Please model this.
Amino acid sequence: MNDRKENKAKSRRDFLQSTARYTLAISIGGIGGLVASKSKTGDYLWQIDPFVCTQCGRCADECVLTPSAVKCFHAFDLCGYCDLCGGYFKPGVMDLNTGGENQLCPTAAIKRNFVEDPFFEYTIDEDLCIGCGKCVKGCSSFGNGSLHLQINQDLCVNCNQCAIARMCPSDAITRVPASNPYKVKGDFIKSNT
Amino acid sequence: MNRQFFKIVSIFSGLLISVITFAQQRFPRPDFESDYKSPSILVPEPRHGWMEYMDVFILFIVLSLATWFVLKKRSRKGVLYLSLFTLIYFGFYRNGCICSIGAIQNVTLALVDPMYAISLTALAFFMLPLLFALFAGRVFCGGACPLGAIQDLIIIKPIELPIGIRKALGVIPYLYLGLSILFAATKTDFIICRYDPFVGIFRMDASFNMLVLGGSFLIIGMFVGRPYCRFLCPYGVLLNWTSSVSKKHLTITPSECIDCKLCERSCPMDAINKPVTEPVSRKKDINRFVLSVIIIPILMLAGGYIVSKSHVYLSKVNRTVSLAELLITHPELKADPDHIDIQTFLASGKTMDSLVQEATVIREQFRIGGWILGAFFGLSFGIMFSKKTIYRNRTDYEPDKGNCVSCGRCMDFCPVGKEDFETLMKLKS
Model:
């Protein structure tokens, strides 16, 4: 009698357990199926839209990496190769030379190379760049806007929620498909239309 | 000379207006007389896409191996080496991203936001450990979770926590899970990822506060087994549910338990249930159970009411809401040139009305979410209470299916089936 009672209790417990198990399995499968129906193959990465970016300077501080994975990119085909470069020089400098006191970049990450009179080429040393966007602001305000900020996908650790995107005041950082991971400025006129 | 003059004029006008415009190419690209060719823009490639699928594949392999080690091989060593691999691969090599714990938020966002399409990798990371838990218990925690692995490897001298403290702290994961889902669903923040104490250690780079948090978790973890897993991990809640009804589960002893009590102190997670033979009156027991079940809807209603009442405070975490609030309460800040958020908002040309409207919508989402969240809290606490009323006679030492993380320590302590023990028993008889 006692044995039967025990068995009954046991089978009831088994029944309840397996019911709960199948219910959970179905609900997990259901959620999975629901989500999978709109899922995408391939991953997402974070990227800055340079046309939305306001160069607030937070990219340098908010990234989980030090220095930030945000770097200044230079679209050479947009560059005017100006002698007086708004991205390289502080406003109002007297002498257009590479003296540290003249440079806008806090880490001297922009290299100024003479091409031919009166043109200079500006290249970015990514190891020095901290992504503060000071040069970008200068170039956009006074020049062609060929300097712009992008997330270097080789450095970015692709956080689930980008720490900079959260703090970006202009919501310029969004998820982009991994197949097209950059929003570099190319043909100036085209990107604007 | 003319060109130089033009530049200077434009710089001054730029200074005066000091508005960022992308109007046009101010200085056309020069025609170089020398054979200078401008370099092309360098775009360093991201990690290959197929490697994401390799992560899923490796997770599957690790989970299968952990299941095999725990159920079939009964090898603590196997689980240990597996967790070491997990720590190195998913932790230090993959920098703790992607992880199943954070994937809760991706799934939530995918369910709520029609614009967000979750990547298959994140979905697989969310589903696989749960499905394995339904079959074999929390093998994910034991072998495949980098956060679990780092805590498991530093356990030195675990103390047994009093049951009261354990139960009280055990409530936190439910709150954390609920809040993280609420914040993910309202597109406010991914708090699980932001306050992950170990991800900074995996990246070898973290802010001071997070380093202190991670460090203190590790120091506490030397004496309290896996503090994050037990008292914080939101994914652990889901694994607890699935694991407690799992088809198979780790057993301490390979055959008959001999009640030797050797395993009693082996579990750093206090997840071993001791034998109980409490003579309880069945009628009283059932009455208490029925009562606790009746209370559940009341708890759900009360929880929903309380949390939805506090939606105003919860919604302050959202940046749109907080910006709108700030502008309404402190309109004088509009003149503050150093306030980046306000200045960007003003420069964007959005009207105050549209911002307030946006904030109102989000706050309403928080109010509805608050009801659901509170009901969820009520339900989980109610179930927790009603579980306490169920007594089950236990003659053996058994792992608590919900809380056991399948680290396999107890299996090492059990003498049954071990060579020395069997010979000893033979000699005795």
Chain B has 21 helices and two strands. The beta strands of chain B are 272-273, 398-399.
